[in-house]
UniProtKB/TrEMBL annotation:
Residues 4-115 form the Rieske domain. The lineage of its organism: Bacteria, Bacillati, Bacillota, Bacilli, Bacillales. This is Rieske (2Fe-2S) protein. Keywords: 2Fe-2S, Iron, Iron-sulfur, Metal-binding. CDD domains: Rieske (cd03467). PROSITE patterns: RIESKE (PS51296). InterPro entries: Rieske_2Fe-2S (IPR017941), Rieske_2Fe-2S_sf (IPR036922). Pfam families: Rieske (PF00355).
Length: 146
């Protein structure tokens, strides 16, 4: 597993997203109410850039004749055909057992700084690793684990 720096916590406030290319994969990192989630930026339906879609909520279970809306900021709607996915786990709202989007772990490291180091491993190959070291900072770093 490799680790990639997304940015500082202050650079990705609640409700915001950052789409980045990591190891030839487009991945969206979302801040949902202070918790970070990462999804592959590809809709399983027809390959749309899923992470560019609208972030919303959904209707919840309620007694007959009543309507409840909730989970605001946790549902991602595909920009092409409106398929909806749960940002917290990558599962489809319509068919959560069969239709999924790849998810990735995201952590926040407090009190560390991270730098990317590129080593020339072979003539045509490069290897990138993340080195971390303790420092005093005002906010943490968001790290994506692929």
């Amino acid at each position: 597993m490799s680790t990639h720096v997304v940015g500082r916590v202050t650079e990705l406030p609640p409700g915001e997203r950052k789409i980045m290319l990591v190891e030839n994969r487009s991945i969206g990192v979302f801040n949902v109410k202070g918790t970070y989630y990462a999804l592959r930026n590809t809709c399983p339906h027809q390959g749309a850039p899923l992470c560019k879609g609208h972030v919303t909520g959904m209707t919840l279970t309620a007694p007959p004749g009543q309507y409840r809306y909730g989970r605001e900021g946790e549902i991602l709607r595909c920009p092409w055909h409106g398929w909806e996915f749960d940002l917290t786990n990558g599962k489809s709202i319509y068919d959560p057992h069969k239709c999924l989007v790849k998810t990735y772990d995201v952590t926040v490291e407090q009190g560390t700084a991270a730098i990317a180091v590129t080593d020339l491993a072979a003539e045509d190959e490069q290897e990138t690793r993340i080195d971390t070291y303790p420092v005093t900072v005002e906010d943490g770093w968001i790290l994506l684990h692929v």
